[in-house]
């Protein structure tokens, strides 16, 4: 089997022209990306900004046409996510979050990151890593069969395999920095602006104020080292960049009004209570639990990680039918079911036991029809701890209520607004003259400004306005 993998896996890297190990044809690569793309769009959603989206698509198409793989069905998306992030999937699927777009200050900075992600695809980094992972799992499985004494250490060995791929990823990042640099030049953008992107990422690596941090920084080369490498490449090229495009003002104009940070219209927490203005409901999670609000579900996990409360939309509109379908699943053992009226809402309850991944679970589920949606609120824990967790889980599920408070229903997100400053001023003076609903550090980050730095009159700067008080 290993010999067969070696034969199938021989291919030529489109960027380097060297042989590389890849288990997938180009058609399979495209299919892989297409399937993952559906999940990503469903999970995060696309940001509703037609002008910005069209610009990203047009820019991406121009840069991809200059790449080593111009004939891929390239797709460029702006995701409705506040994280500072950009990534690529095999087959030509490129994603930028509105979080990273808010931190760019020119078309050229955007082009640098788009070119970087195109480079991951043209160099086939994604499918190479998947191929190596599959081969590693084959080898790891064979080792477990041949050496039973290794079985207790399988998880640790797997972690070591992941660290091996992480090291390769760092090398990949340096390669695509060079590719992004070249793609920028080929479509007429100033590659020096890529250095500004890495400087911004260096600032953002300590970000807070409701701005989720770019987690990829921990697995990539140091941003400031990458900035210095871009500067070195510019000096080494020795070309005239006087006519290279930056596009600062045109880019900033597209950001005016963009949602900044998390959008409370899609749900937000006040301590342990979750509010959803669009769907007009609230639910209290147990005290001290870790909570997360994703696009399709809200979840809380106990500090001991042995109990879960999960809120999501049911697949069936009728609560009774939804409950019946839930209890009819394989591995689910119904215990009892009952209905009740609570403050104008009809609650459809059920207790159950279940087997999942070899674990014996016990739980309670609630179905509620509210507005145009049927909600499924699920609480469960291992049977061994159910008696200790039951009260907290049941109280959380039973706390589902309609929201009528106009302050909650009318909450709006923070947004970026542009200001053309009338005189020279420092960042501190800008904050005083044009207050933001964010800290000075965050405003400095999105404008690429340091404390005390003087900005000339007529410059467009971003401020953050509206939304809940931070």
Proportion in helices: 40-55%
The geometry reads as globular
Q: Looking across the biggest beta sheet, what order are the strands in?
A: 10-11-12-16-15-14-13
Low-confidence stretches: 1-8, 134-168, 207-219
The fraction of residues assigned to DSSP E strands is 15-25%
* C-alpha termini separation: 58 Å
Rg estimate, integer Å: 26 Å
Tally of alpha and pi helices: 15
> What is the count of structural domains?
3
Structural class: alpha+beta
Mean pLDDT metric: 83
According to DSSP, the number of beta strands is 21
Specify the biggest β-sheet: 7 strands, antiparallel
Tags for this model:
globular, single chain, 15 helices, 3 domains, Protein Transport Mog1p, Chain A, alpha+beta, 470 residues, 21 strands
Can you walk through the features of this model?
The protein has 470 residues and is of the alpha+beta class. It folds into three domains: 2-255, no CATH class; 264-409, Mog1/PsbP, alpha/beta/alpha sandwich (Protein Transport Mog1p, Chain A); 413-465. Helices cover 41% and strands 24% of the residues. It has 15 helices and 21 strands. The chain has a seven-stranded antiparallel beta sheet, with helices on both faces. Strands 7-8-9-17 form a four-stranded antiparallel beta sheet. A hairpin with a 2-residue loop joins strand 14 and strand 15 (359-370). Helix 8 packs antiparallel against helix 9 (223-237). The radius of gyration is 26 Å and the shape is globular. Mean pLDDT is 83; it is low at 1-8, 134-168 and 207-219.
Give the helices and strands, then pairings.
Blueprint: H1 2-8, E1 10-12, E2 19-21, H2 26-44, H3 50-65, E3 75-79, E4 86-89, E5 93-97, H4 98-101, H5 107-122, H6 125-146, H7 154-186, H8 193-204, H9 223-237, H10 248-255, E6 259-260, E7 268-270, E8 273-276, E9 281-284, E10 290-293, E11 297-301, E12 308-313, H11 319-327, E13 332-342, E14 345-356, E15 359-370, E16 373-382, H12 386-398, E17 401-402, H13 406-409, E18 414-420, E19 425-426, H14 427-433, H15 440-447, E20 454-455, E21 460-465
Parallel strand pairs: 3-5
Antiparallel strand pairs: 1-2, 4-5, 6-18, 7-8, 8-9, 9-17, 10-11, 11-12, 12-16, 13-14, 14-15, 15-16, 18-21, 19-20
